[in-house]
Amino acid sequence: MGLSETDVAKQIQHMIAFIQQEAAEKVEEIEAKAEEEFNIEKSRLVSQQRIKII
Predict the structure, then answer these.
(1) Which residue from 17, 31, 24, 14 is spatially nearest to 6, judged by alpha carbons?
(2) Structure confidence at residue 52 as a pLDDT band (50, 70, 90)
(3) Contacts of residue 46, Cβ cutoff 8 Å, sequence gap at least 6
(4) CB 3 within 8 A of CB 11
(5) pLDDT single digits (tens) 2-47
(6) How far apart, in Å, are the Cα atoms of 33 and each of 12, 19, 40?
(7) d(Cα 46, Cα 52) in Å, to the nearest integer?
(8) CA 21/CA 28 separation, integer angstroms
(9) Residue 1 above 80 pLDDT?
(10) What is each CA distance from 5 to 13, 16, 19, 27, 44, in whole angstroms?
(11) pLDDT of residue 26
(12) Given this model, what pLDDT does residue 5 score?
């Protein structure tokens, strides 16, 4: 005997929740990396411009 319709629906909901959680974590990783790269580039440009001023 297979799973009931309710059991299947519960499994699907668990799968959806898992995928959404993984996606949210990936978004956080991407945003953190983008912020870090932005700050590195900003520091590089500021340093470069300071050298031109001096």
Answers:
(1) 14
(2) confident
(3) none
(4) yes
(5) 889 999 999 999 999 999 999 999 999 999 999 999 999 999 999 9
(6) 31, 21, 11
(7) 10
(8) 11
(9) no
(10) 12, 16, 21, 33, 58
(11) 99
(12) 95
Retrieve residue 20's tokens: 């959404």
pLDDT on residue 18: 99
Q: Is 4 left (phi over 0), alpha (psi -120 to 50) or beta?
A: beta
| Both structure tokens of 54 | 């001096």
**From the CB of residue 35, how many other CB atoms can be counted at a distance below 10 Å?**
10
Task: Render 7-19 in DSSP notation, one character per residue.
Answer: HHHHHHHHHHHHH
Tell me which residue has tokens 């799973």.
Answer: 3
